[in-house]
């Protein structure tokens, strides 16, 4: 999804990034870590086009975007949640949410519904000024604003900084859902599909009955799997049921449409790649697939999150 090759950035005559190379894979959460002042925020700002690199390349979905303006990078599918949130304090929550989407000429109704489901407080406070929200609520607003631009890559700079623990948990749960393309109400939707399918099974026979039983087993397995559910699982369910319907087009059409609708909602959510700068170690370990640690403008360590040993933490992160 995102490759950074030998990136060098200088600011005010000082060399900040000295040959940073990163590989952020599609549908992964990548955590960029490091002590203060090592170039983490500079890396993110270089990706989104706020800072220009003096050498090296930034490839997004195979395209070199190193010389593109920030707005062009956003249009190609990069969403950015800056450190400090950057909301507009005198605009309402609703106006803050829509400002990025409006700038890109989008009317993201489905994305707004997703944001309201992920962060219900934003819907409740939609007429409140952004500056009247708590720090945690402002962070949810900043994330929601980025989501309304419908990005393929969501970049967040210190999303847990200065936020109360319960909202950190909400943000973590939201990022997990976004990563795998999960629906905030997926448990209820799976239960609804299961109940509708039982009614369909009661009236089916022959080969269709056998296939519906297999589909019911798949749904029940997903209901038990919790956070291990994936976007691909839902897509497979929907495809399997569509195939059954196409083979038996005149049997239980109305009920079949209701089942198809529930499955369509489940697999209709967009799966995202997430890149975040974060210093809260437990948050990173719970959420991330991959990591890299910057030190003095270079990558000092990287790998899968299970490779982040206590020795690496002591050497490169402990102050």
Structure commentary:
- The chain is an alpha/beta fold and 319 residues long.
- It has two domains: 2-181 and 270-316, Rossmann fold (3-Layer(aba) Sandwich); 186-267.
- 48% of the residues lie in helices and 19% in strands.
- It has helices at residues 40-48, 70-75, 93-103, 109-118, 120-124, 135-147, 165-180, 186-203, 206-225, 231-247, 253-267, 281-287, 310-316; strands spanning 2-11, 14-24, 29-33, 55-60, 63-64, 78-81, 153-157, 273-277, 290-295, 298-304.
- The model has no long low-confidence stretch (mean pLDDT 85).
Topology:
Blueprint: E1 2-11, E2 14-24, E3 29-33, H1 40-48, E4 55-60, E5 63-64, H2 70-75, E6 78-81, H3 93-103, H4 109-118, H5 120-124, H6 135-147, E7 153-157, H7 165-180, H8 186-203, H9 206-225, H10 231-247, H11 253-267, E8 273-277, H12 281-287, E9 290-295, E10 298-304, H13 310-316
Parallel strand pairs: 3-8, 3-9, 6-7, 7-8
Antiparallel strand pairs: 1-2, 1-4, 4-5, 9-10
Helix pairs in contact: 3-6, 8-9, 8-11, 9-10, 10-11
């Amino acid at each position: 999804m995102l490759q950074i090759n030998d990136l060098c950035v200088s600011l005010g005559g000082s060399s900040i990034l000295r040959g940073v190379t990163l590989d952020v894979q599609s549908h992964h959460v990548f955590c960029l870590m490091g002590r203060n002042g090592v170039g983490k925020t500079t890396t993110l700002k270089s990706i989104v086009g706020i800072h220009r690199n003096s050498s090296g390349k930034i490839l997004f979905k195979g395209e070199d975007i190193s010389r593109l303006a920030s707005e062009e990078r956003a249009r190609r599918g990069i969403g950015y949640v800056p450190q400090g949130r950057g909301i507009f304090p005198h605009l309402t929550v609703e106006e803050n949410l829509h400002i990025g989407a409006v700038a890109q000429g989008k009317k993201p109704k489905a994305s707004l519904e997703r944001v309201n489901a992920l962060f219900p407080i934003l819907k409740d406070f939609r007429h409140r000024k952004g500056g009247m929200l708590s720090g945690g609520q402002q962070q949810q607003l900043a994330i929601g604003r980025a989501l309304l631009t419908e990005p393929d890559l969501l970049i967040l700079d210190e999303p847990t900084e200065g936020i109360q623990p319960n909202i950190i948990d909400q943000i973590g749960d939201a990022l997990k859902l976004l990563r795998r393309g999960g629906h905030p109400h997926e448990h209820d939707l799976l239960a609804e599909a299961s109940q509708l399918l039982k009614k369909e099974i009661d009236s089916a026979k022959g080969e269709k009955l056998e296939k519906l039983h297999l589909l019911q087993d798949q749904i029940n397995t997903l209901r038990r799997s919790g956070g291990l559910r994936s976007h691909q699982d839902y897509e497979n369910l929907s495809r399997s049921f569509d195939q059954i319907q196409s083979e038996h087009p005149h049997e239980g059409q109305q009920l079949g449409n209701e089942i198809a609708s529930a499955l369509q909602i489940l697999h209709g959510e967009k799966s995202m790649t997430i890149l975040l700068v974060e210093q809260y170690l437990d948050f990173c370990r719970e959420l991330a697939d991959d990591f890299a640690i910057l030190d003095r403008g270079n990558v000092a360590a990287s790998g899968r999150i299970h490779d982040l040993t206590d020795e690496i933490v002591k050497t490169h992160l402990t102050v």
